[in-house]
User: What shape does this take?
Amino acid sequence: MEKLPKIAFPIIIAVIIGIILIAKSAVTIDSGEAGVLFETFGDGVVTDEPPMGEGFHIVAPWNKVFIYEVRQQELFEKMKVLSSNGLEIQIDASAWYEPVYDELGNLHQSLGQNYLQRVIQPAIRSAARSVVGRYTPEQLYSSKRDAIQDEIFAETKKILEKQYVQLNEVLVRDVTLPNTIKEAIERKLRQEQESLEYEFRLVTAAKEAEKVIIEAQGKADANKILSASLTDKILQDKGIEATVKLSESPNSKVIVIGSGDSGMPIILGNQ
Assistant: This one.
């Protein structure tokens, strides 16, 4: 077996070192991610340039690249907070967030890769305690869920705007009250509904009674007007008209005019 030339060993070593350097210098950033460059012999974290985008990159082997997910992410939180009257309420909420892309270097420098635990969770918990503490359990259970959702979002967003994190939405998925409080609220709501139904029936009955009274009054007024308009002369004329019609009937045989007490005709017939 022939011996390798002496020059071959340095070449092999150089090739091995080159492979190692290339392996350490090559960085692949996947879709939905971005990289923050740390220059070991420079100024540290690069904050004055955009982060490294998706794809293959070559960096100096003595530098480092920190990978961040820049897509929208979800944080699910179960929080126990106090209502305005001191009762413990459990809130199940989700927060949709993402790092501010152009500020990724500042985010890495100030908070690091565990920024979720350092700033987002404390912010949403603080906002939830502040907002829920303004409402009673009855309000949280019935009509104020959308309101507290909007208020928690607004307060959390205000905190995170200074932390290089973008908050997209806060969703309150559930509000859980102690069973005794929940049952008392449901009982109260049922009673209020029954009371409203009873009041509606009373109002309906009163309107029906008023309608009957108005109709009766109208008929009475009509009769009064009619009675006032019926003079003796009008009655006599009506009687004459009726007598003429009866005289034309085939059943009429004898007609005696002017025999009644009031001077009205008296009709006599044999049938």
Remarks:
- The beta strands are 26-29, 33-39, 44-45, 55-58, 64-69, 73-82, 88-99, 165-176, 254-256, 266-268.
- The chain has four domains: 8-69, 73-177, 179-229, 233-268.
- The radius of gyration is 48 Å.
